[in-house]
Amino acid sequence: MSKAGSRILGSVRSARAYARGDVTEGFVAHVPAEVDVKAIRAKLNLSQAAFAKRFGFSAAAVKDWEQHRRQPEQAAKVLLLVIDRAPEAVNAALAEMAMA
Questions:
Q1: Is 0.90 surpassed by the pTM of this model?
Q2: Domain hosting residue 65, numbered range
Q3: Would you place residue 52 in the very low, low, confident or very high pLDDT band (cuts 50, 70, 90)?
Q4: The domain that contains 92 carries what CATH number?
Q5: What is the pLDDT of residue 3?
Q6: Which of 3, 4, 24, 78 is 20 to 30 Å apart from 93, CA to CA?
């Protein structure tokens, strides 16, 4: 796995542990209350199904997020923000994990 991919996955794991309450000291995550999943997906020019498949979400979850029936959990919000800012790094990290 690349160094960037390792750092991103490490950050997502840390944020998830924080969101679950497993880690309460030394980490402050500033995650917005809402994430515009549709805008992130549209920026990548992917269908809901393709976006879900590429990044490991269920198609139903993506649909529900976009229709504001529910919000992503904290860890999913963190991943969505990383996808929004560095989709190539997430793609690389996931591709390397699939080959392992």
A1: no
A2: 3-99
A3: very high
A4: 1.10.260.40
A5: 76
A6: 24
